[in-house]
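User: Predict the full complex structure for these chains.
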Amino acid sequence: MVRFECDYGEGAHPEVMRLLAETNMEQTPGYGEDAYCQKAKEYIRKHCGADDLDIHFLVGGTQTNMTFIASVLRPHQGVVAASTGHINVHESGAIEATGHKVLPIPGTDGKIYGAQVKALYDGHWALSNHEHEVQPGMVYISQPTENGTLYTKAELEELSKVCRECGLPLYVDGARLGYGIMSPANDVTLADLVRLADAFYIGGTKQGMLFGEALVIVNHALRRDFRYILKQKGGMLAKGRLLGVQYCAMFKDDLYFELSEHADKLAMKLKSALAELGYSFLYESYTNQQFPIMPDETLEKLSAKYACSFWERVDDTHTAVRFCMSWATREEDVDALIEDLKALSK
Amino acid sequence: MVRFECDYGEGAHPEVMRLLAETNMEQTPGYGEDAYCQKAKEYIRKHCGADDLDIHFLVGGTQTNMTFIASVLRPHQGVVAASTGHINVHESGAIEATGHKVLPIPGTDGKIYGAQVKALYDGHWALSNHEHEVQPGMVYISQPTENGTLYTKAELEELSKVCRECGLPLYVDGARLGYGIMSPANDVTLADLVRLADAFYIGGTKQGMLFGEALVIVNHALRRDFRYILKQKGGMLAKGRLLGVQYCAMFKDDLYFELSEHADKLAMKLKSALAELGYSFLYESYTNQQFPIMPDETLEKLSAKYACSFWERVDDTHTAVRFCMSWATREEDVDALIEDLKALSK
Amino acid sequence: MVRFECDYGEGAHPEVMRLLAETNMEQTPGYGEDAYCQKAKEYIRKHCGADDLDIHFLVGGTQTNMTFIASVLRPHQGVVAASTGHINVHESGAIEATGHKVLPIPGTDGKIYGAQVKALYDGHWALSNHEHEVQPGMVYISQPTENGTLYTKAELEELSKVCRECGLPLYVDGARLGYGIMSPANDVTLADLVRLADAFYIGGTKQGMLFGEALVIVNHALRRDFRYILKQKGGMLAKGRLLGVQYCAMFKDDLYFELSEHADKLAMKLKSALAELGYSFLYESYTNQQFPIMPDETLEKLSAKYACSFWERVDDTHTAVRFCMSWATREEDVDALIEDLKALSK
Amino acid sequence: MVRFECDYGEGAHPEVMRLLAETNMEQTPGYGEDAYCQKAKEYIRKHCGADDLDIHFLVGGTQTNMTFIASVLRPHQGVVAASTGHINVHESGAIEATGHKVLPIPGTDGKIYGAQVKALYDGHWALSNHEHEVQPGMVYISQPTENGTLYTKAELEELSKVCRECGLPLYVDGARLGYGIMSPANDVTLADLVRLADAFYIGGTKQGMLFGEALVIVNHALRRDFRYILKQKGGMLAKGRLLGVQYCAMFKDDLYFELSEHADKLAMKLKSALAELGYSFLYESYTNQQFPIMPDETLEKLSAKYACSFWERVDDTHTAVRFCMSWATREEDVDALIEDLKALSK
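Assistant: Here is the predicted structure of the four-chain assembly.
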């Protein structure tokens, strides 16, 4: 069985494992105050092209989102997000459990646009009794989105401009940021995020690490006392060096980006093959996740050899599914899949 | 200026004021444990046709909703509501502040239907990873709704049936329950609510009292320790007798219903007149709130003599507004308004 | 039966009732935006000798405490209080329910002192891993305290000085503030509170009103968006004018203080008589609450004619009880009690 | 520099690292639903001598405590704990952030006793207005305690008996459970915990794993929907297999206990040596943490070669410090320390 279900099926890239093993018996201070965490932060700052970044390492994405968002908002504020945003649908109410509403903006491509945020913001303040409604307090987006789509630099600039005009911090969930950055369709760099966002995180779990998300807080006003809230929400890892070591392996040189590029390349190969065979897609993704719409009959035949994820029913005989490529995906497996798809199309 | 903006513009019905004055110098125990609260509960039980009802008096609607909902749900559960439901849009995130997501069901008439709840519930449990999403934990509806519409007995029976099949307590926000019960279009009684809901509240603030909402908990499983949570959320009035006395005035005989009937009758008079004059309505309401769509020009002319509430822009030259009738509205004022509307239509 | 159990046994002072009745049929905007609330704020500002005060009216003390404290603290911060403070022991965990720890300072007289706050603050920041503990974020005191004791002006100045040095807002619970201000032992004025505290509330419920607490926010930094949080926590009264009207009755002239003085005077009369008869006291109170320690035998004899509150067991044959005087207490009842006590002592 | 500061300075025991490396490229389902987690649960059940245990793996102790406690309590309930309990002092208000008060029982040895819990419980329910105070909802203890002390089987039986009489679930924080179990002073087994507690966790982070705590829920009533809350609080590790694999390494045979025994043995060696040299101890610990009181002069001399943790100032010239032994501590380092201490005593 060849598995394309998700991008977190294996452990970590061998270089990550090697460095963990090599440093295993060193004694370090706990809670992220070790030299590996410091070094990893320096590597990340260098990749971002910025010296003044406040960086924290957390274990997972839900934890990162809820801890950062709770640290930013006052009690009466909510976080604006796409209705399909991870925090709105796939985190079991983690944001609400910290006391805050997610203010969803409906859409189909997973993105929200400057004009939508402006309209929501203006609509709120135009109310004569605005204090009866949740005040928009920040904006959450994902790059790439949960649908594999990407914000262009122009879209991000527009969104950032609106957010700054409205005084709404812009936070970017980068669970798959590497796959976004290395996409052939992408024009947004880490330096752009530093310039346009107030905070973002560089995902590790789905990008070849055992676990780990690097939260980068750009805006000074949002840095104060973050470590308290990190501890309070259960996100301060005792052996914090494990996060530092892994990010060292990834960001010392370009490993993080090389692994992302590998996955994206295979995804594009599959995408082209599917398109040539006449399949349509639920979302137009240029990143490591592909969402083709396929006949149920075809899916059943594939299921003997390949695993993918159910996404949604499209009609009585068709289903949208997800094929994920990762750092660990082998090109020969993708090739075999393509051959089998071709055979099934004849 | 004659004001039709809302149903809470005046103080309380004279009989309420009289009884408050009459009992003012009596010494009673605090926190709702006085004889007036006990008596008021007996009156309400009688009107409901049920002996075994757990009744608590609170000061306001938002307080009642958030206190009861927080007392019912476990941390991972959310409350299902119409997207237009008061808890979803007009309580400043009170529910989320207690840790729970509102799970909105979209719609235009302010109501949710059994089949929609069933679909949402089944959809949740059909997920292979349902623990990544908020679990539906109870259902909230308003009778009448925020739009002035009414659930029919058949609709409520269907909804109640689904809720019981799914193990979801059904809670009814009755901020304007009297206006609903006395509507000419209504076939739902207090006894029906006892039979079909797990809890509901009988609103006082908008129905002729200074303040006050009577929460009726029917389901025994939802009664335990409610007074602790009432105290914790700031809803336990020190001089609780003030609530008891007011509900005594209202429910000793039929004052609550007589006042509601008065408002509904005037609302129907206005509704008929508006319809005859060719106005359409944003919502089809048979209760004390009417939402006609009117030319901006007409509204401007009316504004010299009458106040109503802006509701929403309909097009470039028309606006939906709200006219509220209450226990305190005078028939001659409604008549004058109708005459002026007729004059403007010529 | 003559009742000395508490200071909220009756309704409201007749002048309060009169003004409520007189204004009952006026139509006003809701939610505290009416002219009576504005006028009442002006009266209070005048009594405080300060023009620039942000004032909000709430229904009860627990509600006021939890709403204001939740509006001030960030998630990782706690509120420093005497271990006997109302928020620590008698609010059913209302503060914790908003996410914050109460950081108790032990003591016996209900007060906390500047040096104690300084030590707690310095101790926190001296920790190498302070982010593992709750950060002190503000200070809560009661004037008078729950034990009837009073902060002197010098004590309050010292506490205020420490709080400002530490950046900790100082908040004063004034549920019985009038009884404190008019105490013969008091040297703290409303103007002193404006000068020394960041916020305080002027209690109405226990001071002759039906209900109501006037929160005075002095510090500009703590004012922002308070009305949202007021609404969210269920504390925004629809017919807010009821609070405005009552505070108008109390603060237009000096009624609030005259009623307090009356109660304090009777309390001092009882205190002197008890002392002369050789009784000792659990707390040295110069306000409307007195806590004598009495033989159980005596208490039993009194109980046929007088009601007081159990406070705590002192030894096998003695109990500390509370006698409360209020605006409604009649001097002849206190005199009769004193005579009966004298007779029992013979 | 030889470091005795804590028991989480190194990575993981080599066998843990070996198994992680060996399984690294296997594809498994995420979120703890893999075969390694299942196998690890079986091993733990076997060590506990019980088939019917609900087991969940979490990353850290604070996360485990706050997630489980939040899943058990209703909003008005608090958790009873020793005032020195980890949840009361070292988790940055994590429990309060989920809405619940910690109800501290004062003490000096880190333990709470059945009679104390009974008194607290009875005291609460004896109040006429108990709903004004936080209701005790469960009991939290640590075995061994934060002070290195141990509950005896008799003490635990008494506490468990009281908890069951009072309907209070008993939860045991086992961050260092292995060191407790293998202590020469211990008579409490895993099977005893299954018999006496409603839930407990078997700590991994401080016991030789990279990270990980195994929460064992014994009581069926406390199991429902736990995975939702685990996800919501950010505690559901995407690559959950990492926890399963590590616990497999530890519990397949007796590695967990052998490593604990090693640390305890070295701690006892140091304890004896210190006692012989005349040192006294802040706490009487028979586990891997030792808290001797030492002259500042001695500590300064030691600091050139050895690191320990500051615990508290005892007097002007003495300090209590903590020496921690762990799976990774080398006997020759302890021997060298003892020799140096002897030399300093001459």
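Chain B touches chain D through 20 residues (CB under 8 Å).
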